[in-house]
Amino acid sequence: MATRNNIVLALASLGAIQPSSAETILGAYIFHRHGDRTAKSTPPASLTDLGYSEVHAHGSYYNSRYVANSSEAHILGLGSEVVKLSQLAVSSPSDNVLQNSAAGWLQGLYPPVGGAANQTLRNGTVVEPPLNGYQLIPVSITSTGSGSESSQWLQGSTDCQNAEVSSNNFFNSDIFKSYQSSSLDLYQSLSPAVNATFTEDELNFKNAYTIWDLLNVALIHNSTDSNAALANVNTSTIHELFLLANVHEWNLAYNSSDTVRAISGAVLAGQALEALNETITSNGKSKLNVQFGAYATFLSYFGLAGVASGNPDFTGIPDYASSVAWELVTNATVSSDGAFPPTSDISVRFLFNNGTSSSSYDLTAYPLFGGSSLEVPWDDFVTQTQKFAVTGQEQWCSVCGNTDSSCASNSTSSGSSTTTGTTNSKGSGISNVVAGVIGAMVTLGVVLGLEALVLLASGLRLVRKKTLAAAAAAGATSSTSAENVGAEK
Is-contact 8 119, C-beta < 8 A? Predict the structure, then answer.
């Protein structure tokens, strides 16, 4: 697939990971970004035909990796042609771009099966399904994150008060003020190309992402005949704007001194942990979990899990159709009845593909938690993830400082959502509370007992400009880390 603006995230240094012949993949959790869309600054954003093609192609890649029987990475027992809905759970916020991306991706993951889907009725009539055996796969829709791809200002939570304050603090930080001053002339020079969308007062670093996003979309889809001013926005300029957008979004998504800013990544970590634990404790009844969400959630997780500290390229905005995957892997012999080995023989591998900027669809493995190994023993993965994951509603309320709505009933409750215990009879598992991770909708239909929990975050949320201004006026301070800021993709 063609790269966009020749901006490539250089994340292939470790090479694409192919499992050894002796290895078995027991299950996986995928977090995926949408495909190409229209600009955020001209809402409502919508998935383009190009974006549809992108996510479909990436869904086809995951078919070749996890679904196809011929693949060495085939997930143990996963239906290889006709989908078994009990094995698969897919979710998306209520959002046109993300929902349609999920649907298009699933068409690639499980393509039409032709005559294999025919049904013969009692009277002998053969029913041929529409669209050459198109497979109907439900996507669980969550109310949180609604319209997130039409939101122009992103930050680290959905209704998490402390995270909103933390992200807004960036706009009063020294690093923000420095970029605001040094880049002003560049942004002002863009007026001829963007004045139909942005006023002169809005042409500054505070709008770094939405300005770059508008021009990036225009340079993909518009001809210079429709906007002659685009001719003055050359490759060098758009690259500089992209780097500034990286700085802007990384600092809104993560701060090493104030990790509540990365609440969306903390919730994602909890969701992945809960889903993978369910795969283990159910002996693989739940095999593949997929969630579609916003790019800033990638950044938040990269910061929390130590991925960015080991490779500063991870402070760059993941491109369209990017995805991460957590794989449960073992080199132990799996019994003929499909029973999983003890958790001491199970590890987690973390992989990433930078979507349309990548030279291939292949996933590449990277170390987690500041380590060097590409595989983390399950027990260690649990321990390290629990250090920053949000693993229950009570914990979320405490971290976020919320006391209204659903948090009101938790303010007088006792106990801790981070208490550890065991749930797996074959070895160390995760706590009973972790089994109630926020975001149970991600595994709806697999973990029915979690239906009452609220999915608190699946991506970064809208921050109103008035709120930003108010926070800055209040004199809030930020100890933003600039260690990896501005890394080139």
Answer: no
